[in-house]
C-alpha cells in the first residue's frame, strides 16, 4: 500500500473516531431527562426548573474527602481533574430548551419566587450545565432544590455511564436546610 493511501485511511479513521466520540455526549436536556429521576424521589409527572443554569461547584475538590465519603465507587483522580477543569472553563450562561425537556417546566426566577410563596408541597429545581469527560463516560452536575424559605438542598453529583444508562458514582451535599414539617 502506498504511503498516500495509508495516510488517507489513517486520516479517515481519526476523523471517524473523533465524530463517534462527540456523538456519545448527550445534549444537556437529554442528560437531565435521564438523571433527574435518579437523584430526586418524585412521582410527579412534571417539575419546575429555573430556565437558566447555575454555576457548578465542582471546580476545586478534596480528593481524599470525595474518595472517603462521597464516592459510591472508585473514580480515578484523572477523571475528577478532567471534570473539574471542564467546570472551570464553562462559565457561559445556558438556558434550557423547553421542547427537549420531558418533564421539566422552565420558569423564571420571579415565577419561582411566586410558586414558593404559595407554600404547600411545591418544589423548584435548578441545575448547573452538565460537564462530561472527553470520552462521554463521566459527567458532573449540580442540583439545587428549594421547597420554601427554610427548606432546600444543594448537591453535586458525579455520574458514570453504564450499559443501562447513567449511574450515580458520587454525591456531595453542598448545603441543606431542614425539611418543613408536614401538616
Sheet with most strands: 7 strands, mixed
Mean pLDDT: 85
Secondary-structure class: alpha/beta
Our estimate of the beta-strand percent is: 25-35%
- Alpha plus pi helix count: 5
What do you see in this structure?
- The chain is of the alpha/beta class.
- Helices cover 34% and strands 27% of the residues.
- It has helices at 3-23, 28-39, 63-70, 77-89, 109-117, and strands spanning 47-50, 104-107, 124-127, 131-132, 138-148, 151-162, 165-177.
- Strands 1, 2, 3, 4, 5, 6 and 7 form a seven-stranded mixed sheet that branches.
- A hairpin with a 2-residue loop joins strand 5 (138-148) and strand 6 (151-162).
- The relative contact order is 0.19.
Layout of secondary structure:
Elements: H1 3-23, H2 28-39, E1 47-50, H3 63-70, H4 77-89, E2 104-107, H5 109-117, E3 124-127, E4 131-132, E5 138-148, E6 151-162, E7 165-177
Key terms for this structure?
globular; 5 helices; alpha/beta; 183 residues; 7-stranded mixed sheet
Summary, kept brief:
The protein has five helices and seven strands.
Amino acid at each position: 500500500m502506498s504511503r498516500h493511501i495509508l495516510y488517507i485511511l489513517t486520516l479517515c479513521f481519526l476523523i471517524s473516531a473523533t465524530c463517534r466520540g462527540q456523538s456519545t455526549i448527550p445534549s444537556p436536556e437529554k442528560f437531565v431527562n435521564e438523571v433527574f429521576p435518579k437523584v430526586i424521589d418524585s412521582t410527579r409527572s412534571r417539575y419546575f426548573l429555573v430556565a437558566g443554569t447555575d454555576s457548578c461547584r465542582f471546580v476545586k475538590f478534596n480528593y481524599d474527602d470525595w474518595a472517603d465519603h462521597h464516592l459510591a465507587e472508585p473514580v480515578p483522580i484523572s477523571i475528577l481533574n478532567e471534570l473539574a477543569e471542564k467546570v472551570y472553563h464553562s462559565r457561559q450562561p445556558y438556558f434550557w430548551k423547553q421542547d427537549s425537556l420531558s418533564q421539566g417546566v422552565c420558569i423564571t426566577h420571579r415565577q419561582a419566587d411566586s410558586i414558593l410563596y404559595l407554600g404547600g408541597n411545591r418544589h423548584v429545581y435548578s441545575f448547573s450545565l452538565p460537564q462530561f469527560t472527553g470520552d462521554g463516560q463521566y459527567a458532573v452536575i449540580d442540583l439545587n432544590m428549594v421547597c420554601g424559605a427554610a427548606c432546600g438542598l444543594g448537591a453535586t453529583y458525579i455520574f458514570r455511564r453504564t450499559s443501562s444508562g447513567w449511574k450515580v458514582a458520587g454525591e456531595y451535599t453542598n448545603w441543606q436546610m431542614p425539611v418543613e414539617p408536614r401538616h
